Amino acid sequence: MESAISANKQRSRQSGFRRFLHKLNEQKYLQAMAIPGVIWMIIFNYIPMYGIIIAFKEYDITLGFNKSPWVGLANFREFFADERFWLIIKNTVGISFFKLLVGFPLPILFAVLLNELVSVRFKRTVQTISYLPHFISWVVLGGILMNWLSETGLINIILTKIGILKQPIAFLAEPKYFWGITVVSEVWKELGWNAIIYLAAIAGIDPELYEAATVDGAGRFTKMFKITIPCISGTIAIMFILAVSGLMNSNFDQIFVLRNPLNADASDVIDIYVYRMGIEAFRFSYATAIGLFKSIIALILLLTANGVTKKLTDKSLF
Amino acid sequence: MKIKSSVGDKIFNIFNVTLMLIICFLTLYPIWYIIVYSFNEGKDAMLGGIYFWPRKFTLDNYKTVFSNSDITTAFMVTVARTVITTTLHVFFTAMVAYAFLRKELMGRKIYMAMGTITLFFGGGLIPYFLLIKSLGLYNTFWVYVIPGMFNFYNLIIFQAFFRELPIELEESAKIDGANDFIIFTRIILPLSTPVLATIALFVGVYNWNDYFMGVIFINNPKLQPIQTFLYKVIAQTTSNQMLAYAPGGIATRNVTSQSLKMATMVITTLPIVCVYPFLQKYFVKGLLIGAIKG
């Protein structure tokens, strides 16, 4: 009796396997298209994820990921005790916070004002021009900034001419100006680009709403604040979640170009420190631990921002 | 339905148009400035006072830059990298996106879940660096190409587009005996030019503008992209090595490291600035698909 059941099970398992093979054969082209993508992800996404274990090891390049000896949380403890720890956290969060404070509302304002332009042609031209800086690399922009912000640069010439400065300042050599430079240059680069999504959201608003409001005697500002902005609040919420979850990212490309030893006290953010410790100083395990610390905080921020926004506005990423 | 505009409206319009003009000026001026500087004699430019137009027009900066074999090699590396990686990325990512979208694909849920995780979590710089080294990609041209072939975020954008295509086309092709790969290349791809153009622009711009891979994965100057070259020139405030390449006479006369930097910046930026207005209508659409689905 029992053996009959198990034989039966085996048979059904066998036929299940055969069905699987049959199905696989049927979709061999489809699988041949899908599996290279899976393999790519395993190699370039999942092996590095596995490589995170070296944060808990003392990585030895001759022994590799697996055989290097475990050290537990020693790398993390060392980072928390690092004399630059608080400075790095302050710089990372500080730069991102000011980018959020200034860089988040401005594209919304820009989109709303752009939408109020009467001439369609002028509007299009402004839009096209405003996207342009997005396509310029940080290396080129960094080059312009270094030229303009140097002691003989354009900014100093203008500021001394109109009497704001008595002595020219080497702006990039002083930590106290660094945050401001990163915020302003990022806003310059991404203002128009970041406005695209709000412009599209505005374009999607039902024109009847405006017509009805006009009949009711609403002025331009009333319409802006009572129709346009509430109608795009969903988009604003989603963009806000994404912006907050990126708080631990302070735009590596930008800071890497603008940093120098003189402004290190303001430009050492987590990503830069990972680079300095890992690639420059070859402290692979230590740098990986710092990177992991960052990823965990970023994940917590994402989940928190998502949760809070969901509660407040009913809109969320997931 | 138009209502007569009030005085307040008029003032607002004037204010708004003025503000937009100021924004346009602030956006264009830094770019204009490097162009002007690059066409001016270097030594003369150092005296200052050049704002809107070259004072002593010259092509010497460009002649010097183009006679520098390091720059021309770096430029060619960037062109090759951008063209090859972008083409492969668009084809490969679209192919995987299409396969992952088909409902009958076995393992579909697992594949998609694997990809979704990569959107939120990664290994970070150091494990990635060690991987590239152990794969033997370090200091080869392929480090630009193979790791740049695929991106799950772009896959989502592709899928959002493919979902809108009429499914009947695939079915009728299947009845005619076409396999999935032929359906993808002959039916899906030709219908997808808007999304292909969008992703091509994103990936192309990324590859054109990236300097960091050249900094960490390449130490052979013959393989470094132009952005990395420019980064090195800018970061080491002395770019006199560039001057050393200048053909006799020009350098001593009026080319400076500053004016050479400016000319290199213009050359580096020009190709993209020329391309993007034509692709504008595509990328606006593509960005929206990405933002809504992502």
From TrEMBL, chain A:
Subcellular location per the Swiss-Prot or TrEMBL entry: Cell membrane
Keyword Lipid biosynthesis: no
Gene Ontology biological process terms, A to Z: transmembrane transport
Listed GO CC annotations: plasma membrane
Principal localisation: membrane
Topology relative to the membrane: Multi-pass membrane protein
A Pfam entry, by short name: BPD_transp_1
TM regions (residue ranges): 29-47, 93-115, 135-159, 227-248, 284-305
Key word Membrane present: yes
InterPro entries per UniProt: MetI-like, MetI-like_sf, UgpAE/MalFG_permease
Keyword line: Cell membrane, Membrane, Transmembrane, Transmembrane helix, Transport
Domain ABC transmembrane type-1: 89-305
Coiled-coil zones: none
Entry's family note: Belongs to the binding-protein-dependent transport system permease family.
Protein name: Binding-protein-dependent transport systems inner membrane component
Species in which this protein is naturally found: Caldicellulosiruptor hydrothermalis (strain DSM 18901 / VKM B-2411 / 108)
TrEMBL record, chain B:
Domain named ABC transmembrane type-1: residues: 75-279
GO BP term, pick one: transmembrane transport
Membrane topology of the entry: Multi-pass membrane protein
Record bears the keyword Nucleotide-binding: no
InterPro entries: MetI-like, MetI-like_sf
Subcellular location: Cell membrane
Presence of keyword Ribosomal protein: no
Broad class of the protein's primary localization: membrane
Gene3D superfamilies, alphabetized: MetI-like (1.10.3720.10)
GO cellular component terms, A-Z: plasma membrane
Protein name: Binding-protein-dependent transport systems inner membrane component
Protein's organism: Caldicellulosiruptor hydrothermalis (strain DSM 18901 / VKM B-2411 / 108)
